[in-house]
Amino acid sequence: MSWLRRLSRDRSSRGEQDLPMPNRPFSNVDNQQMQSPPYKDTQYSSTFNSQDKLQNYRPSTAGEPQYSTAHRAPVTSGDASNRHPMSTMEPTPDPLAKAFNDAIRPFQIEIDDLKIKLEDQSSKLEETTYQLQQLEDERADMHAWIDKRGLRADVPPSIAQAMNSDPTSAQTLNYQLDRKMTVLNHDLHRLQDSLSSHLPTATFATTLAQLIPSIEDLAALPGGPSLAFELIIKLGGNLNSHGGEEGWNNDADASSRADFYGRLDECMLDVVRLRLAPGNGEDPPWQVARDAKRLEKTGAFLRSKFALQTYFPRSLEAMKRGIPGGYE
After folding, report:
1. Fewer beta carbons under 10 A from the terminal one: N or C of the chain?
2. Category of 102 on φ-ψ map: left (φ > 0), alpha (ψ -120 to 50) or beta
3. What is the pLDDT of residue 69?
């Protein structure tokens, strides 16, 4: 232990700068600077101190990757897809919007159901419209078939009411009644010619009187009174063409003819009242005086030729009262 104390005294007696430097290896450091290290930082430039130099010569750790900002590889779509999912997460929904959507969801469902029902109803409506159009076409064909054969006056009232809704129903019914009257008159003449004996006037009157209800129906249609007026006059003339001398000279035939003309006068009186009614829409206006003179002239001929005393007396009187300015 005595040698150790001597060694300690020898070192303390020497200066510290006389002691030899330990033999240690230094890498990547300038030997000249390490052999004579400066004792003051002021010996270096203020722009580059020992700390900066030490950072520049800092050795890299083994296995640590070297990063450089000089050259960077471009970001590809693969790199973007490999990013952390938190970087592409959608923003948190608004609680107010979520509450609003939840509140209207039942009403939206009900609206969707109503839309579906509306589409179903629309399809059913289209189908019903198509079926209705088919029925209307069939009805029109049936009415045309009836008119073609002149059977309108003989159809049931329900069918006649539907047919009379046509604006031209009055003209159509008038044509068919006129045709039917002509056919009946021809058949009666043929029947009389096939017999050797005289047919009573009552037979002719009863057959022709079947047309009076149809003429009354014609008078009730728009534009029908003027047409019915002419048909009544023609119907009376058809009766006058039957009977011959025997039909005009016996009392039974004269009574049958008077009854028939009485029915015609009642029907004609209703027609005259319809034609004289204000706002009847008859175009051109009815020339009442002209038709009144025509009836008077025909009645005078029948009185002188066949001793027919009455020919539309009440109808003629109503016509004279309805003449503007009086009848002359």
Report:
1. N
2. alpha
3. 47
Contact, 269 vs 310, CB < 8 A? no
Nearest to 306 by CA among 235, 269, 234, 258: 258
How far apart are the C-alpha atoms of 293 and 313, rounded to whole Å? 13
Report the pLDDT value the prediction gives residue 158, as an integer from 0 to 100: 81
Terminal CA-CA length for the chain? 185
b or e along 256-286 (b: 16 or more beta carbons within 10 Å of the residue's beta carbon)?
bbeebbeebbebbbbbbebbbeeebeeeeeb
Identify whether the C-beta of residue 225 lies closer than 8 Å to the C-beta of residue 282.
Answer: yes
- Does position 31 have pLDDT exceeding 90, yes or no? no
At residue 72 the predicted structure's pLDDT band, cuts being 50, 70 and 90, is low
Q: Where does the pLDDT of residue 256 fall: very low under 50, low under 70, confident under 90, or very high at 90 and above?
A: confident
State both tokens at 136. 């209307």
- Each residue's pLDDT tens digit, 74-131: 555 555 455 554 555 666 668 888 888 888 888 999 999 999 999 999 989 999 999 9
Q: For 128, what's the count of Cα atoms within 13 Å in the CB-facing half-sphere?
A: 6
User: Is residue 139 within 8 Å of residue 183, measured between CB atoms?
Assistant: no
Q: Which of 204, 192, 273 is nearest to 237 (CA)?
A: 204
Residue partners of 29: CB distance under 8 A and separation at least 6: 57
Q: Classify residue 155 by burial, with Cβ atoms within 10 Å: 0-12, 13-18, 19+.
A: middle
Is residue 150 left, alpha or beta, with left meaning phi > 0 and alpha meaning psi from -120 to 50?
left
State the DSSP string of 182-237.
Answer: HHHHHHHHHHHHH-SSPPPHHHHHHHHGGGHHHHHHHHTSTTHHHHHHHHHHHHHH
Question: Pick from 271, 193, 199, 277: which is nearest to 235 by CA?
Answer: 271
pLDDT tens digits, one per residue of 168-222: 889 988 998 998 899 888 988 888 888 877 778 888 888 999 999 999 999 999 8
